[in-house]
Each structure stands twice: as structure tokens, then as C-alpha cells.
Amino acid sequence: MVGVRLLRPDDADIILLFPITSQAPARSRRAAEIPATEKRRGGLSIDMRLWLILDEYNQDTLGQSFYLEPEPPLGQLSKAFLLPLLKAFVARRTETRRVKRNL
User: Hey, which of 25, 62, 91, 98 has its CA 20 to 30 A from 18?
Assistant: First the structure.
């Protein structure tokens, strides 16, 4: 699982939790294969093919989450890897919300 913190102006920061899977996703899914360098940074197995799934996530409010445990993370993925994926995620989410409002 990859957690991404989104800062909000009302101090109700949210965290998005994206799954990681070893099962190759269908072509219709929004996913990115995690390269070996990122698997090392993230404390993940470099011997397995892994994908970060971007069209499925849980959202929670930071500080009120029942999903987060006080244990330290295994590692983290780099900003260089995650930022383009997250920008595309936000753009798709914004567009989806705009379309739904216009229906």
C-alpha cells in the first residue's frame, strides 16, 4: 500500500491509500509497474513484478485514521516516480467530478 498525503487549507489533511499488487492488471486499469529502483527504495521485493494501482484507493482523514499504525514505514517511493502519476490521477479525478456535476 502506498499512502499519499494531500494538504488541505482547512487543516483536514487527507491521505489516499493506493494498493500494490503482484498480479498484472488488465489493460483497462490505471496502473504503473514499479521499477526495481523504486522497489528498493520502498522496501519491496525486487524479485517480483509489482504494480501500483491508481484507479482504486481508500481515502481517510489524517489524524482520524483507523488504517494507519504507528509503526515506521518500510520505505518510500521517490517523488520523481510518484509525482507524474499523481498529477495524472488528480487530473482524471477533477475531470470526472466536473463531468458528474454537469450531468
Answer: 98
